[in-house]
Predict the structure of Flagellar FlbD family protein.
Amino acid sequence: MINVTNLNGTSFVVNSNLIETIECIPETKITLTTGKYYLVSENSEEIIKKIILYNREIFKNTVKLKN
């Protein structure tokens, strides 16, 4: 799950596993595999970094559980 900001300034959480596409139109449009989409203030690079950090944290915790 990653935090993003709506165009009106409201923060919300998106399940990053459901993200299908990220477009800059010039707002950033996140389209989910469900067909639903969100317009957010973060640019695509910021969203990708958030996804990478989230996945690193999940993987790190998974490795700790296996040991």
Summary: The chain has one domain: 2-66. The mean pLDDT is 92.
